[in-house]
Amino acid sequence: MTLLRIHAEPEDAAVNPSEVAALVAATEPVQVRLDEVHAGPVQSAAADMTVKLVRGEPGFAYDPEANVLLVRLEHVLSCFAGQGEDNATIIRANHIVAFSVIGELDVSAATVSAWIETNVYFIAYPYIRQFFTQLTSALGLPPVVLGYMKRDEWPFADATSESTVSAEEPVNVN
Question: What kind and span of H or E run contains 21?
Fold first, then answer.
């Protein structure tokens, strides 16, 4: 029988690393897909374009009938010439990462959030990185190649269950 229970805990409750490890062991990525994208208008295609990537707060939901844990990741890429962000081309993208769940787990929402930060982003990031490179090129902008993620530089944020809320937390793209 497969069952995942996600329960709330007080905000100051510590995350147990063994619970995160159990969640890693009980999940298998099955799909990374684009959920939603908003792009444009293209303001400038300058060769000296500056880019800024900001990620939103991740969200998650569990479908017990399908035994699938869904994680929604939001990113906003601003592309602008020079130092002024006034005329930026804005690309907002949401990706869904689906994981099959095997076994029975009882974890806190904080554990799921820690799992997203320590595992899910690193699974999804190559797809997100490729998406922004392809879309900026398709828009006539110089192709944006985002840097790779470094665990020691990755900011920790809390994921919310079944909803997403934008966060103005910049992510290092170099």
Answer: helix 17-25
Residues 6+ apart with CB under 8 A from 33: 95, 96, 98
DSSP letters for 137-162 = HHTTSPPP------GGGPPP---EET
CATH superfamily of 3-171: SecB-like (3.10.420.10)
Residue-wise pLDDT tens for the chain (174 aa)? 455 676 666 666 678 888 999 999 999 999 999 999 999 888 877 777 888 999 999 999 988 888 899 999 999 999 988 767 778 899 999 999 999 998 887 888 889 999 998 899 999 999 999 999 999 999 988 899 988 876 666 555 555 554 333 334 444 333
Q: C-alpha distances in angstroms, 130 versus 39, 60, 145? A: 16, 23, 8
Residue 76 token pair: 């906003």
> Could you tell me the pTM of the whole model?
0.81
Q: What is the dihedral of CA 42, 52, 148, 164, to 10 degrees?
A: -90
Q: Please give the Cα distance from 47 to 44 (Å, whole number).
A: 9
Please confirm whether the linkage preceding 41 is cis (ω < 30° from 0): yes
Residue boundaries of the structural domains of the chain? 3-171
Residues 6 or more apart from 12 whose CB is under 8 A from it? none
